[in-house]
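Before drawing any conclusions, I looked closely at one protein's amino acid sequence and its backbone structure tokens, quoted below without any editing.
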Amino acid sequence: CTGDGEAIIRSALAHEIDALMRHAGLPLEQACERALAGLDPLGTAGLIAVGAGGGIATPFTTPAMPRGWRIGDGPFECAIDG
């Protein structure tokens, strides 16, 4: 997670994503989006989340978020905005 650190800590953002996946049965991307939506009144953030099956989610609530990742021996991936 990156962004407004106080807001991320207060909302326990990573824990909230885990809980939404384990207890609500949401897929990784939806859990990330819902957790970020709950952060809205406190601040903005972005994250790179990796699911148990290797899936990647990179949502953010800022205008842009530079990010990059690589899965196994696959190609390097990167993005800046949506």
Remarks:
- The first helix runs from residue 5 to 11.
- The mean pLDDT is 94.
- Residues 54 and 74 are 12 Å apart (CA to CA).
